[in-house]
C-alpha cells in the first residue's frame, strides 16, 4: 500500500520548530511503504520471544538478544507475501541457544530457517524433492542467501 496523500503538507514540530527539507524527504520515503497488516502477527510474535528471560525453559535457555530480534524482523521484511503466507506465527519459535526459528510449511514440505545474532541457516524437508541446507552463513539485512531464496521458491511452487 502506498500512502502519499497529504504527506507533503505535513510539518511536525521538533526542537527548532519545524522539520527540515531533508527530514521531510525522509518522512515521505518511509511513509510511502507501509507494512501490510498480515505482517503484524509475525512482528508481535517475534516481540513476545524477545521478552523471554534467560532460562525461559527451566534448562538454562538463552534469551533472545537484540541483534537476533532485529535480524528476525529484517528477515520478515525480505520475504515475499506469497511465501510469508506459508508461515504461521505459531511456527516462529525460540531455541535454547537464543536464536529464532521460522518454519514455512506447504502440505508436507517444510523450510526451517534459524536466525541468530550474526548468522542465518536453514534446512528443508521436502516430500519428493532433494533437500537443501545451509548450516550457517553471515546474516545480511535485506538480503536472503541464494540457496534459501531457492528453497523458499521451491516450497511456494510445491
Main features:
158 residues; alpha+beta; 5-stranded antiparallel sheet; 5 helices; 5 strands; disordered N terminus
Task: Give your account of this protein's structure.
This protein has 5 helices and 5 strands. The protein has about 160 residues and is an alpha+beta fold. Strands 1-2-3-4-5 form a 5-stranded antiparallel beta sheet. Helix 2 (about 40-50) runs antiparallel to helix 3 (about 65-80).
Number of strands: 5
Order of H and E elements? HHHHEEEEEH
Major sheet characteristics? 5 strands, antiparallel
- Helix run count: 5
The strands making up the biggest β-sheet line up spatially as 1-2-3-4-5
Give the percentage of residues in beta strands: 15-25%
Radius of gyration: 19 Å
Structural class: alpha+beta
For the residues shown, what is the average pLDDT?
Answer: 82
Distance between the termini: 28 Å
Question: Overall 3D geometry?
Answer: globular
Low-confidence regions: 1-35
Helix content: 25-40%
Fold blueprint:
Layout: H1 21-32, H2 39-50, H3 66-78, H4 81-84, E1 87-94, E2 100-106, E3 109-115, E4 119-125, E5 133-138, H5 146-157
Antiparallel strand pairs: 1-2, 2-3, 3-4, 4-5
Helix pairs in contact: 2-3
Question: What does this entry show, briefly?
Answer:
34% of the residues lie in helices and 22% in strands. It contains 5 helices and 5 strands.
